[in-house]
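Hi R.,

Here's the input for the riboflavin complex you asked about:
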Amino acid sequence: MATKNLSEYNLASVPSASDMKFGIVVAEWNYEVTGALAQGAVDTLIKHGAKDENIILKHVPGSFELTLGAQYLAEFTKVDAIIILGCVIQGETRHFDFICEGVTQGITNLNIKYNKPFIFGLLTTDNQQQALDRAGGRLGNKGDEAAVTAIKMLALKDDLTA
Ligand code: RBF
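And here is the predicted structure with riboflavin in place:
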């Protein structure tokens, strides 16, 4: 598997997702980007055998809400892994830094609290073009990569707990 652009992953190396349940939480801010990330994630899960009924996709207003949205999915549904998708674009104020720090720390804490994979699919870019490049544009789709990461982490858990 390439390490710089995981969208070009080796299909044969991805385990089957047919028995796995996924939650996806998507921020509505910058939806042109985050909607494409979500579509990539869903398509990739299905391509690797996940069943439609085992994918729960929910939206939250902005990236700052992703942490709690993901916690709700962990707390109130039976999903095995949660894919977190958002896009924060650098503006003129320090808001960018606070949102990025908050979400990164929040997701790290969720991984530990629930002992489940919470996959970090937050684009943090200088401008919209950089984000579009990574949401189905010239640099692949980070939503696809987040989906493959979720499958691989669940397969790792299965392997170690079998
Ligand atoms: N949410 C995003 O997902 N991406 C952004 O780029 C983004 N920029 C914001 C900039 C400002 C100045 C503010 C006030 C909010 C921004 N948000 C952004 C929304 C944020 O994640 C959250 O939804 C709100 O702060 C409400 O908690």
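One thing worth noting: The radius of gyration is 15 Å.

Cheers,
M.
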